[in-house]
Amino acid sequence: MTTPGLAVLAARGIPHEVLTYPHRRKGARYAAEALRLPATSVLKSLVFVADDGNALFALIDGEGRVSSKKLARASGHKRVAPAPPRDAERLTGYQVGGISPLGAKTAFAAFLDETSGRRQSLVVNAGARGTLVRLATDDLIAVTGATLADLRAE
């Protein structure tokens, strides 16, 4: 199976490993369990909308929760809020549970939690439910243009 996210990695020659599992429910924690990976290595790809109407990605490990205040500060906005699922799907071209910052229909800013950014490699959704991709953290940052920031809610 190929997805727009995997096509982006292939087109750029970025080394990666495709990981698949039977998708029974959404969530990075479930994906990590199904793949027998630590939840801290599997990212959630969350879509937020800022007060100016711009969308952005917040990428954080399966154990973390995003602080809207910290994300707003990092992105230079006064407020951000999670996008409703239908809006997230419309903006990215992906289904909830398969949303990826790789190959999204609309390009928008991405922010990677600095704790996750310290890992050598990360696993992120490849653009389909049950399909993830492991790649070097530096490559993920390069391909998404992600900014490292403290996004973690206390």
Topology readout:
Layout: H1 4-12, E1 17-20, H2 28-35, E2 43-50, E3 55-61, H3 68-75, E4 80-82, H4 85-92, E5 109-113, H5 114-117, E6 121-128, E7 131-136, H6 137-144, E8 147-149
Parallel strand pairs: 3-5, 5-8
Antiparallel strand pairs: 1-7, 2-3, 2-4, 6-7
Question: How would you describe what is shown here?
Answer:
- This protein has 154 residues and is of the alpha/beta class.
- The chain has a single domain, classed as YbaK/aminoacyl-tRNA synthetase-associated domain (YbaK protein), CATH 3.90.960.10.
- Helices cover 29% and strands 29% of the residues.
- It has six helices and eight strands.
- The model has no long low-confidence stretch (mean pLDDT 95).
